Amino acid sequence: MHRTPDSVLKPQKYLGGRGLVVLIALLSAFVPLSTDLYLPALPGMGDYFGVSASQTNLTLILFFIFFSLGLLFWGPLSDKYGRRPVLLTGLALYIAASVGCALSWDVWHLIAFRILQAVGGSAASAVATAMVKDAYDGRKRESVLALVQSMVVISPAVAPVLGAFMLPYTSWRGLFVALALIGVVSFVGGLLLEETIPARYNGTVGQSVRRLGAVLKNPGFASLLIVFSLVSTASLAFVSASSYIYQEGFGLSEQSYSFYFALNAAGLIAGPFLYLWLSRHFGRRPIVASGFAVMLAGGALVCLFGSLGPLFFALALFPASMMGSCVRSPGAFLMLEQQKEDAGSASALINCSGLVFGSAGMVLVFLAGENLVLSLGAINMAVGMVCLAGWAAIGRRGLVRF
């Protein structure tokens, strides 16, 4: 079938064009929704269960690890069986596990249900990026990726605020009930979805999973994957440490913390829109290079001024947050462009690698001692420097079709 740059592979009878974009954005938001909504409750959950912060943080760290592993299973499976059945199966598991989290009676049962929640939710993220590859081409695909990113990063701004304002009226259990309801809404959207995959993989399940290796053998895809996944190291380090920096370090209330967190999330929201504007005037290569350079500089600002107070910290981190978000859209577009087939496997690797590097950031930020502000600034500086060098090397070696 011939596809123009603005065409949709198959019209969505029930969702329509806008409904498809909204569903993709919601599915892509499962990671921030599943983590950020209950971030304000983390210190209180530790007190409730009588455990240390490191044990409570396992509900975050193990979520990301098993979410990453789930992506590697669901992504190739969606190439074989289609996006819709994989999506509905994963969402059913996510809803059941979210209810289990709400009913947990000790921290270890909560961790177990969070693992199941991660495995189910990973199906949503695995098919979301693949659906963009299925449905759009060229500049239209890049625009949809940027739009989806802008909608996705609204959730880190809204979720902690919503969670903080829910806590006076409900416990942390009510936050997991809210996640179950989000899963139900997504499940309804999945029922209305018409299959987007243009052609299914005909091999066995084992052969389908092994396509992950074939995708990784593409040097252009693999090099881009490493560079752009590193960005998640800095962003998820902030997610992991933010409640402790603002609430314990600066002594803010849960509600005040949520507003400062939202200020940094505003940078994430502005990033994709900034990229769309910049891309009308400049090429992808200088935009991405500038983004990495700003991340480096932003990390230095956090190291120098972040400890002076919560507002200084938020403003110093803002440029790095915004440019980290800005480079995600061209990064995802370029990675998808390197693969003509195996969109599910490519999507799984993109999301999995980002979460693996992000999980490393969540651990690293706590290894440098009690000065989390300085640790976070150093991580942003290191990420910006390494990504900038890697991006330059990719350009010199001609590994990628820009």
TrEMBL record:
The organism's place on the tree of life at top rank: Archaea
Alphabetical UniProt keywords: Cell membrane, Membrane, Transmembrane, Transmembrane helix, Transport
Residues covered by the Major facilitator superfamily (MFS) profile domain: 20-402
Pfam families on file: MFS_1
Protein species of origin: Methanoculleus chikugoensis
Primary subcellular site in the record, as a coarse category: membrane
Coiled coil residues, start to end: none
NCBIfam families reported in the protein's UniProt record: efflux_Bcr_CflA
Membrane topology, as annotated: Multi-pass membrane protein
Identification of the protein by name: Bcr/CflA family drug resistance efflux transporter
Location(s), subcellular: Cell membrane
Record's keyword annotation contains Transmembrane: yes
InterPro entries registered for this protein in UniProt: Efflux_drug-R_Bcr/CmlA, MFS, MFS_dom
Transmembrane portions of the chain: 20-41, 53-74, 86-105, 111-132, 144-166, 172-193, 220-245, 257-278, 287-307, 348-368, 374-394
Presence of keyword Zinc-finger: no
Family of the protein in this entry: Belongs to the major facilitator superfamily. Bcr/CmlA family.
